[in-house]
Amino acid sequence: MALGDATRINTNIGAFNALAALKRVNVDLERRQFKLATGLRINEVADDPAGYVISRRLEARVRGLGAALDNVGTTKNVLSIAEGGLLNISNILVQMKEKLIQAANDTLGAEERNAIRSEINQLTEEIDDIVGETTFNMNTLIDGSYTGKSFQTGEESTNILLFSLSDASDPTSLGIDSPNVANRLNTATGAAYAQTQVNDAIDTVSSTLQYIGAHISRLSVKESTLRIAITNTEAAKSRILDADIAKEQVESTRLQILQQTATAQLAQANISPQNVLALFQ
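Below the sequence we write its predicted structure tokens.
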């Protein structure tokens, strides 16, 4: 920084120096005030090029994790719908078993057996209805067609959960269609055979429910993991991108004082050449 000679009045070097200092203070103060207004340490790439790039990558990761968290929640909803349908089918199978135990008693007459057969036929048809009504986004879930599905459960392309639901609900696939159950109720022996078929169907549905429940439990763990990852990534991004408000306020106060002193010194430098006039008195 050049120093002026007070006896040379044509160029006021002191005033120029004070003006330059005032401008630097004003620029710095404006930046500090902008950070306080936005809450961000990096408001443009020039503020911290490396920090800006890192923060954008972290932001992309946060948003990717958020989308994955939504995917996991939707996937749990899909599985819950399938679970609900299978639970209803399981309840129907238990009810059918109860009726078949009644039919396995030789104290029943033909009319009683016909009444039980009619009720079981209605229950079997209801299973068909449940299968058709257990859907999500126009996809039937428990008729054996919901197979080879992939669910994105993370931000990376490799974070995929593959899932398939076997056909564990259709009366024919379960072996509880009319030839195996309802049509065998004429005798106690036939009713006992039908009981075996229904017991096997209950085991099959229970196995599928266990499979679904295990995946829902796994997805719940993924939800927790994703939430923690989002929080930690947000914290890392905040450390780089967000302004330290307390620090910025302290710096802003300091610069405001310097602004006042620089303004005062500029005013003083502007009038200092007048001192030379004393030489002419």
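Residues 15 and 267 are 8 Å apart (CA to CA).
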